[in-house]
């Protein structure tokens, strides 16, 4: 591959090293939750209430505000012209002002409607089994969570500005700091409230435990925003502003509206998932475990590629489509390869990981639905990895509408699946049905975005077909072997499951590399070579 492709892969690997620590901390945070709160009535109230601010963060951090700012600011912030730097400061300040104002209004409205919102999300089945305290506890938690919403806006705007300057350390470290704070709060809850008490029901959980659980989570978002403070030191001069720089308004609105379309689509999907999962207590927690486990390989393997290449794409946007294609094509192939590796490992370790999360101290022991869900969810990593990269690419060429159409169409398929598929399966397979819906929808989104990028930037998908075939083959062989192995060697205890999961993950990774080396040797050699260079540094 060209030196340009190698530099993109090396930058992605550098970001990946930072992201690995954050995602490991996030994994530890979710694991701590499963052992201290678990898929219980308390867990149902907590996870349901926390969906409200969390969905805003997931969508915005996935590219909406950051995706708006990076292409607008990248070239200006490195300019020697003080007028260009002043324009960048004004646009960034306006984005921060408007996003905070809007989300404060959203938070205030949600505070007024907190109880009806929780009643909408908590189905009769969960309330009937957990009692009336489920709705009351969830409402109180939601009030405590609402300050998170404007803090997310601060974090995401600051992250966009830092990424536009190619300063990736703070955005990569922020989730690490937040996860540590929230994880500690879970451990404190575990010390205050024994697992046996949590499993008995909400009525036995003391108010101090609920306060630490909800307050610690919001404190984690405070830490998330504070970690982005390096954005206050740099070329951007922050001032309250309602108007962006001259000429930026139309593009800012266009990109923001495309992000809003995705936001609305994903919010609707999240509501549908929560309602579907709350037919029985704990199902919404098991889905949150599946989602967290899915995001781990996505964030460690695919997102660093998209994050590292985005500023370079933004700066090359004026150089012509050939320059963009030369940067984007190897990135597409890299995302396909690393996403298939993640899919293989996720499917392979599904059974032992489910035991760790659901058969622990505070778990329900219902491992079957989570295990099957992870296997069915794994193929979605390829589509979701493409979404992370290609939405950013389309933003840089002014094709925000195409990015929105492809992404919203994919989430539309997810929504239909979430509504329909759980009706076709037993209640104890709801999480698996939701996983299938995501695999279908995210695959559709990835395919639509590939087509849009192919049209907007000719040559950007060069070589993607053979690499996709190789990636799918490697994932099927490695993941399938892992599933078969764990079906032969079963364990129902956490400690042996941890060892089994580590062993199977290593074996699946080895099998994936063997197949990928035979099917896509050039791209794999470049990927491994750049990873080694980063490790040596």
From TrEMBL:
Entry annotated with the keyword Membrane: yes
Molecular function via GO: lipid-linked peptidoglycan transporter activity
GO CC aspect terms: plasma membrane
Location(s) in or outside the cell: Cell membrane
Matching Pfam families: MurJ
Keyword Cell membrane attributed: yes
Keywords: Cell membrane, Cell shape, Membrane, Peptidoglycan synthesis, Transmembrane, Transmembrane helix
Superkingdom to which the source organism belongs: Bacteria
GO terms (BP aspect): lipid translocation; peptidoglycan biosynthetic process; regulation of cell shape
Membrane-spanning parts: 56-74, 95-114, 140-162, 174-197, 209-231, 252-277, 289-314, 335-358, 370-391, 403-425, 431-450, 462-488, 494-515
Protein topology in the membrane: Multi-pass membrane protein
Protein name: Putative peptidoglycan lipid II flippase
